[in-house]
What we know:
The protein is α+β, with helices and mostly antiparallel strands. 70% of the residues lie in helices and 11% in strands.
Amino acid sequence: MFFAKLSGQNIRKNLQVYLPFFIAMILMVAINTMIYLLVNNVGMETLTQRGGLRFAFYLGQIVIVLFTWIFAIYANQFVMKQRTRELGLFHILGLGKRELYQIVLWEMLYGLLLSLVAGLLSGFVLFKFTSLVLMKMLAIGEIFTSQITMGSIVVIFFEFFFIFSLLFALNCRQIHRTNPIELLTSHKKGEQEPKARKKMTMIGLLSLSIGYGIALTIHSPIQAMFYFFIAVLFVLLGTYLLFIGGSITLLKFLKKRPNIYYRPQSFIAISGMMYRMKQHAAGLASICILSTMSLITIAMTASLYLGRQAELDAEYAYDITFTPSVKTPQVQEATYALAQEMGIEITDSLQVQTRQEIPYGKEANKLQWVSDSDSSIRGVTKLFVANYYRFMTLDEYNRVTHSTNTLNDNEVIVDQLARSSNEKTIAFQDSQTFQVKKVTNQLASFFQDNPALPTIVLVFSDEEPLNHVLEETISEIKTQQRVIEKEYRWSFNFKEDDSDKRLQFVDNFSTLVQTISNQRSYSYGLKFKDLAVESNRLSDASFFFIGLLLSSVFLLATTLIIYFKQISEGLEDRRRFIIMQKVGMSRQEVKQTIRQQVTMIFSLPVVVALSHLLFAFPMMKKLLFLFEITQVTIFVKATIGVVSGFILLYLLVYVLTAKVYYQLVEREG
């Protein structure tokens, strides 16, 4: 028990060093407990049945577990760095390395016990809070059970038992590889002036340029999905190399400029940063990466959550859309009877006949049909960059729009959402060229099934030029006797304020359509705005919740890393503070120099993180297209709001931790 008592005394006497580590591990236990209780709660089955959302929570759990291991190793390195002198002193006084292993073992056991007890209790409280927030966001009522099962405790125990076992092994390895004198005097070792790392700087610049280049040259959502992680890896590598090598190279460059270097404030700041820049660089790069991850995660999930309603309004111009393969007046008659029976008023009814949606890509200013049977990456990419065209006759268009347009055989009307097109002609590959007589926007929104895939309606004079274009441009019509079927679309809105009654009408209408289709044997499609709103509300709110959770974890880690760095630098700078005063600098000049150095160091990660976010913006925008979020304005506003909030939070953390740093530096001044 001697070593147990000795370890306890060491922790109490060095609480300033141990406390941040214990707080970090308690928070990691709490967060892991909270996400585990959410994922494995019986209430999650309800979400899974209604929205298939467990995958998002599983993904968040995996990220948090991986991050916990990485961050635990980082925090432990901070503690061991401050403990080297004390362990060396124990060794000089007669304790062997085996006894030092026992001291470290008891310290790890105390840390594990404290982390588990406080973390599990905090995790349960955090679970209660987050489950209330989640249920409020999803509007799903009380579905989560408030209990911690023995299985939950066992899983969390083994996870952190293995984490602390790894930390113990790493600490023993460090003690084993270091002799007593090095342990005792390691705190006095100053870093020699590092050499300029030009090769590392060049590789870092090249890696960062490749990552930025990929982000800027992606043109489709599918490409963005495939290349996103490749770009992330290049940016990650470039960031660390530039912080570690590029920062030293820059300082060396400034040192060789007499008009910059030989100034009192610049001389002290540049020299002080250069001697410990390798240590600074790794932590600063980590802060930069975590900040970037926080910004990207919350910006995208917030855009997904806030922009969904606008996208649904654009995609669902009507409450119900029914697309049978044949004309079915029986459905309309039965629907009006059903609405009258339920006391619901049907409004804005619209029936229109077109050909099925056809993808065309543009090559050499000519429209070329894109085959939907090509499953290669290039083929799928072509489909995502293609425009989707619907062909209809002038008579049908005039009937639906209540207009009196006229067209010659070589003329067309272009109906699209954006009326900014200046094209005078529409040219098809291997077919004739048509003159664009008119560009309007009367029906395009009616056919906009997917906001990420723009639909354009082309109106021909009659069936003859329409069929000629299809036969000449779509090879499968001739080779496989394919027919581009006619589509009969009926859309309508209905008035009803009660959400449950609206869903009941939707369900009854679906049953009605299925009954009639079975009698007449035809295929059909259905789109319900109410069901889409319900489904997307669940999925988007869940992704937003996971985004907030992950961002909170990243921000927490950023805060703790900054705090660790401030304490570490403060403890090391005490002696430098005294030396600077002894060589003639006043107390005010020393404080000003230190403030300048600290400000330069901690502003750099934010600047680089904002640069990463700026270059990632085009790729983020295209990734959101996969979730059918095309409202760029909402994305921009969400990103600006996230950046503003992050900068304010970062400044608050910096101010609070800087006070700790100054107190440590001035303690012996």
